[in-house]
Amino acid sequence: MTALLTIQDYRLDIPTFDGALKVLDGIDLALDQGETLGIVGESGCGKTVLARSILGIGPAKGKRVSGSMTFDSVELDHLDEAGWRRIRGVKISMIFQDPMTYLNPLFTIGRQLSDVVVAHKRAKGERLPSRAEQRKRCHALLDQVQIRDFERVVDSYPHQLSGGMRQRVLIAMALAGEPQLLIADEPTTALDVTIQAQILDLLRDLVDRLGLTVVMISHDVGAIAAIARRVAVMYAGVVVEQGMTNDILTQPRHPYTQGLLAALPDIEGGHQVLESIPGTIPNLIHPPSGCRFHPRCPRATEICTAQKPVARNIGADHVVACHHALD
Ligand SMILES: Nc1ncnc2c1ncn2[C@@H]1O[C@H](COP(=O)(O)OP(=O)(O)OP(=O)(O)O)[C@@H](O)[C@H]1O
């Protein structure tokens, strides 16, 4: 089976006055239809840049140094604007941390959702829906995200809704084009803990019911574990470990993953946030030689400063980039 999304040796630099930030350093990921992949790592390790690059909305000055991204057999890096319009928001849609930023404060939810519904019809060259049809479609979309008081919500302005409701509305908008892939970038981070759990339940339900393919980004391992069957751990622009979520959580092999999980106070029942292990993410203009994690690594030896570890398979669907993964 061909993967729905394939990312191969993807390197991205962002030029700055002080030199190029080597933000993504050879990312390899693959995602099948119907899969749920979590990307976890500390703040600043490149998760958002990676996710946005999949949608062609990466940093404006970002330069692909090597590698490729292929979605549904389409080479994304070769797309022109017309090509992107057929994919972005249609085949791949994205939800973000702060829904308020993506909702227009001046228009009601009903108006904004209707606009999205109409825009999708137009993009597909289909007949534009009547007012009544738009309303029916909005109703169905809000129902899909478990919003039951339809009448109140469609006539509300974004500020009249709670954060959780706004996130549900954004998810409804993201689903309007029946996307093949949904990218969720920290979708629960800005919400209260109880609301976080509700939104995670909703995403879980959508995955189960619609067979949605999801890439979910979070620094919250609990949130990732709730949604994602597979997980990729990122450190300083590198995927250091990936595999089935259950294996990674119970048998982490990379010292960074081990550090992240050890720093979790108690994963049971709650969605604990990662506490970073000692040290900080390195400067990405002059990243450490060899393994980017070596300055913080309790197991680092000479080879780690000299050679970048090659990602290797150490079990069924468990890949680690560490010289000492099996020590
Ligand atoms: N447009 C930009 N210009 C310059 N640097 C950028 C730009 N966008 C991202 N970066 C830098 O790239 C690195 C990775 O950022 P990114 O936002 O992807 O991290 P992240 O893992 O998603 O973190 P967070 O969880 O805080 O969002 C950071 O050092 C960030 O400062």
TrEMBL record:
It comes from the Bacteria. It holds the Pfam family oligo_HPY. GO terms for biological process: peptide transport; transmembrane transport. Residues 5-261 form the ABC transporter domain. Its main location: membrane. Keywords: ATP-binding, Cell membrane, Membrane, Nucleotide-binding, Transport. One of its GO terms (cellular component) is plasma membrane. Gene3D superfamilies: P-loop containing nucleotide triphosphate hydrolases. CDD domains: ABC_NikE_OppD_transporters. GO terms for molecular function: ATP binding; ATP hydrolysis activity. It is a peripheral membrane protein. The keyword Disulfide bond does not apply. It is found in: Cell inner membrane. Belongs to the ABC transporter superfamily. This is ABC transporter ATP-binding protein.
